[in-house]
Every structure is written in C-alpha cells, then in structure tokens.
Design brief:
Oligomer: single chain
Helix content: 25-40%
Mean pLDDT: 81
Distance between the termini: 57 Å
Pfam families: DIL, FHA
Number of helices: 17
GO cellular component, one term: adherens junction
Largest sheet: 6 strands, antiparallel
Number of strands: 13
Protein name: Dilute domain-containing protein
Strand content: 5-15%
GO molecular function, one term: cell adhesion molecule binding
Shape: elongated
Radius of gyration: 36 Å
Structural class: alpha+beta
Organism: Cherax quadricarinatus (Australian red claw crayfish)
Length: 619
C-alpha cells in the first residue's frame, strides 16, 4: 500500500552519499566489476547449477551439447542479449522465442524460471508454465518449440538422490514460489532395467534368496517384477528383436518368475511370515499381470501358476494358524469363571488372532483375503469348541453355567472382531457356537419356549438341538426339560434348518465339519496399486544392494503422473493437453492385440432364511 502526496513547491532533489569503493572483489583495482558472487565453496564454478542443451526431440547430444552456468543472479532468456544482468543471458533464436522470453533466477540455492509474458512458451517436464516455477535437479526445460535443456544442480545431486530432490527443494524453498503442476505423462513412476546375462541371478535375489524379514516395503518384489516385465515388453530391451521374439521372451520370463514364487511358497509351507509375505506379493503381481493391457495376453501361463500359488499360500497359512489355535483352545473350556480377568481363558486365543492380523497388515495382504482367512479361523474355533460340547465326553458342558461362560468368552472374541472390522465374518462363522451357548442358558421348560428356541437357534439342525437338549443337566433350581418340548423343537428344526442344509447339498450331521465349505476367491480389487503414488517408500532401499551388485538399475521418471495403474485396462489413456516431456519415450512397448472378453454367466440362489452371499465379498 502506498500513500500518494503532492510534492511541495520548495522540494529539491535529495543528495545521496557516495558509497566508498571497496578493495579486491568490489570493482576497484584488483577486483572484478562483475564478480558479485560470494566467495563460498558452494558457489565455485564446478558446483554451480547449469542447463545442458538437448536435441530438438529431447535426446542427449553427448559432448556436443553446450552448457550454460547459472550464476547467483538473474539470467535473461530471449533473442535480445541483455546488458542489465551483469552479462548473464541465454540468447536463443527460433520459433516462439520472445525478445525477453523468460527469467531464470538463482538465489539462496534455489533456481526458478518465470515466463515474461503469457506468449512466452516455457515448459517444465512437458508442462506449460505461466508463473514462477522451481527447477528440480534432472528436470527438462523447453523454451519455444525446439530449445530443450536439462537442468543439473550438483549440490542437489550430492545432497540427495533424485527421488528425494523434490522434498529437498520444498524444505529449502522461500518466498511465494509455487510448485509447477503435477506432471501427467502416461508412464510409470520409475523404470527398471536388467541385463539378460544376469537375469537368473536377479530373479533369484528377489524370490528364492529373499528373507521377508529384511524387506521394509513388503510389496517390493511385486513392484520390482512388474517394472521388469514392463522393461522386457518395451523396445528398450533389445531393440533389434522382432515383436514375435519379444513376446516369446516376455512369456518365458514371466512363467519362470511365477514358478519361482510358487516354489518358494511350497518350500516354506510351515513359515507363517513367509506365507503371508508371498501370498500378498503373488496376489498383487497376479493383479498387475491380469490388468496390464500390454502384458496380460502374454502372461496367461504365469497367471495360472500365480493363482495356484496364492491359493496354496492361503491354505498353508490357514493350517499354520489352526495348528497354533488348537494348542490354545483347550483353555477356552477351562472350568473357571473369569468375568473380570484380563488374562482369562480367551487371552491366548485373542493373542493368536491379534498376531495374525498384525502379520497380514504388515505384509499388506489384500483385505478380501484377510476376511477369507479369518473366516476360516472363526470357523475353526466354532468347530473345535462346538464338537466338544455335543460329544459324549466328561465333563458335561451342557449346563446353564457353561452357557453363561461360553456366551461371555465368545463376546470377547466378537468384540475383538468388531474392532478389526471383522464383525460380519465372526457373526456368520461363530453362529452355531453362539446359538448353542444361548440355548444352554435360556429358559426351556414351558411350551411357550419352543417358539423362542426355534427363532433364536435357527442355525442348529435337528441332530444338534436334540443332543444339546437331551444332554442338558439342569441346576437345582431348574425343572427338567420335558420330552415333548424336545420333540417339538426338533420337529421344527427338521422342517427348517435340515431342509435348508439339504437344499444346499450339505449333510445333516451332529458335529461341525473341520473344513469351511467355501470356495477360495481371488479378489478383483482392493490392491495396493490403486492407492500407491510415485516410487513407494522402501523400494529404492530394497533395490540398492541389487544395483550395487550390477544386477539391475532403477531410475525414477520425474514427469510421470505417479500412477502404477497407467497401463491397466480401465485406465483413461487420453493424452494430456500440451506437449509431453522426453521421458514419455519410455512409454514405448510392443503392440498387443486385445481380443474380445470371454463372458461367463452364473446364477446365485438365495434361500429364504439364508444370510445371503459369502461374507468374503464384504468390504
């Protein structure tokens, strides 16, 4: 804000004091009139940022490309050679280059570019800019239509790796500078290359020789293998190959990778940590291969192997957790009351469930697979306890006291499940045990109790209800259960629960089956690629030892949109408006014909009193 005042009539020009002439470095004798830069090692000529010239198509020119150092001050870019910036100017000629095109400012370790007008075509990483934009180490800058440069800052390169440079700039940025809009090139956030002669060593290092406990980003093998597949599918790998040979080599590599993952799962069938780790990676990699529109047609064998591997890992992990539960479930039936006891009869069971959930989350297992696995564990608890209640064993659990105990202990498991978002799975697969506990502690002596029992114990079949009622041992203050009440309750169950079981093709039996009769379903969505943006944290650390060993090389692509789903079928692939940066060249890959999708028609029949479709589809 300015206050404008009228100049007084007697106003005269103010006399200014002359600044004393400095010695060396100040423009006097022995000094350089243009050397206004501080004498600091940071600003030595070999440490200054610079622009290196590229070809009109963005290609490297090798040793022929000229370099333009950006000193501490302002560098004007345009057809005019400025005399107002201490001799710092970048004179360019050609289409769309204005006399004063733009200004590059180097202050306090930050380099920015500002177009002088809206007609001054200036691009950073393929995106047209209209205001002050910070330049990051390695980014592409274009003036007009044909003048391409790469910005290099040795200080940023020394302080941080390329993937951390953006965070470094944000940390040191000052003033009202605004970052340029996010790049939108349809390419992966990073590319990975590996040599053909070291392919086996590279693949073994990320599969068979890998210790899951040493991996910070648990899905690192998936993203590494997907980048490897994209490299093998692109023309950057052996440009001399014909499309047929390229497709054959891609198919061969992916089939080999899938077989290696499958072998690891088989060899570690008793290790829950490895099983969860590889179940997550196999399912995520399978999703990448199925959805990638360039790779899917050439990875059918690999997809079949990975699908089987996921199922084997799932079944083996369920077996491991059930074996662990079987050692703790006897405490679930301990003859004691632990109403307010923290370390009660359910403590060990809850500890196993908690550790299992922590393992699955740490390994980033798909949520639908997690629900299916806990459905199996809840069913196992239900089966193990229920079968001992109805069995002819000592002690007799068919009493009111045990009904109260079972209800209280089950409530703790159900409360844990609710906190984990598994309440529907617990309600469904603990239902028979829960209804048995309800039957044991409820009233069951009067004719009016028949309707209540039939409505609350609808999951129990006729054999199970008869066993529970006939084995029931009443307390001293309870009357004996009338036989006609038992017969009436059983008759209702024969027309309802038994009929539904037979309609579903299940046998009416007293004991619960050991295995949960549900098909294993591979999730269609909910994978990490839908939410991961850019290079995931921990992926570079995972690949560092492999890069040092010369097995592969990963390079981030600064102009990427950051999406890992960029090549997937449902991704919107319309090109972004405006020119794209030279790194979009990594988008080249072989053309793969897309056939018509195969349509399968299925029918789902829901019984009148059923609970609907499987809980595994619930999110």
């Amino acid at each position: 804000m300015f206050h404008v005042r009228r100049r007084p009539a007697d106003h005269g020009p103010r006399k200014r004091k002359k600044k004393p002439v400095k010695g060396a470095g100040g423009g006097g004798p022995g000094g350089d009139a243009h050397d206004h830069r501080p004498r600091d090692p940071y600003f030595l000529p070999d440490r200054l940022p610079f622009l290196i010239e590229l070809g009109p198509d963005g290609s490297e020119l090798g040793g022929t490309g000229r370099q333009h150092q950006l000193h501490l001050n302002v560098t004007e870019v345009g057809t005019d050679r400025s005399t107002h910036t201490g001799g710092q100017s970048l004179q360019l000629f050609g289409s769309n280059i204005q006399p004063r095109h733009c200004v590059i400012a180097h202050t306090e370790g930050i380099v920015t570019v500002t177009p002088c007008s809206r007609d001054a075509d200036t691009f950073v990483n393929g995106q047209r800019i209209y205001e002050t934009t910070i330049l990051q180490h390695g980014c592409f800058v274009r003036f007009g239509r044909i003048h391409n440069f790469r910005f290099i800052d040795p200080q940023q390169d020394e302080r941080h790796h390329l993937i951390d440079s953006s965070r470094t700039i944000r940390r040191h940025a000052m003033g009202n500078y605004e970052r340029y809009p996010a790049a939108r090139d349809p390419i992966l956030p990073a590319v990975l290359e590996f040599r053909e002669e070291s392919e086996d060593a590279f693949l073994h290092a990320i599969t068979t020789d890998l210790d899951p406990t040493d991996v910070q980003f648990k899905l690192a093998p998936t993203y590494t293998l997907y980048m490897a597949a994209r490299f093998r599918a692109s023309t950057h790998y052996r440009p001399d190959l014909s499309p047929t040979d390229r497709a054959h080599r891609l198919t061969e590599m992916l089939t080999k990778v899938a077989a290696m993952v499958q072998n690891v799962i088989h060899s570690r069938h008793g290790d829950p940590t490895s099983l969860a780790f590889w179940m997550a990676n196999a399912s995520e990699l399978l999703h990448f291969l199925k959805q990638d529109r360039h790779v899917c047609g050439y990875s059918l064998d690999a997809q079949d192997i990975l699908a089987e591997a996921v199922q084997v890992a799932f079944r083996s992990l369920v077996d491991c957790m059930q074996a662990e539960l079987s050692t703790s479930l006897p405490m679930f039936l301990e003859d004691r009351d632990d109403i307010n006891e923290e370390e009660g009869s359910t403590a060990h069971v809850l500890s196993i469930l908690t550790n299992t959930m922590a393992l699955l989350r740490r390994c980033r297992v798909n949520a639908a697979l997690t629900i299916q696995l806990f459905s199996q564990l809840f069913h196992f608890i239900n089966m193990w306890v229920f079968n001992r209640i109805v069995a002819e064993t000592h002690p007799n659990f068919c009493t009111r006291v045990w009904g109260v105990r079972l209800k209280r202990r089950l409530a703790r498991i159900e409360l844990w499940a609710e906190k984990q978002g598994l309440e529907l799975a617990a309600d469904c697969h603990l239902a028979r045990l829960s209804q048995a506990a309800m039957l044991l502690h409820s009233q069951k002596s009067a004719p009016d109790d028949i309707a209540t029992i039939s409505s609350t114990c609808f999951k129990l079949n006729s054999l199970q209800l008869r066993a529970l009622l006939e084995k029931y041992q009443p307390m001293q203050d309870e009357p004996k259960i009338p036989q006609d009440l038992i017969d009436n309750v059983v008759a209702v169950a024969e027309s309802t629960a038994d009929g539904l079981a037979r309609e579903d093709g299940r046998e009416v039996r007293l004991e619960e089956e050991i295995d949960l009769q549900l098909p294993f379903l591979l999730p269609e969505d909910g994978y990490s690629c839908d939410i991961v943006r850019g290079v995931p944290s921990g992926l570079a650390e995972f690949l560092n030892p492999l890069q040092h060993a010369g097995l592969c090389s990963m390079n981030p692509q600064p102009s990427s949109s950051g999406y890992w789903t960029i090549y997937m079928h449902e991704q919107d692939m319309r090109p972004p408006p405006g020119p794209r940066s030279p790194s979009v060249m990594s988008n080249r890959s072989m053309s793969i014909p897309r056939g018509e999708p195969e349509i399968h028609i299925i029918q789902l029949h829901k019984s009148n009193n059923g609970m609907g479709l499987s809980i595994v589809a619930t999110k």
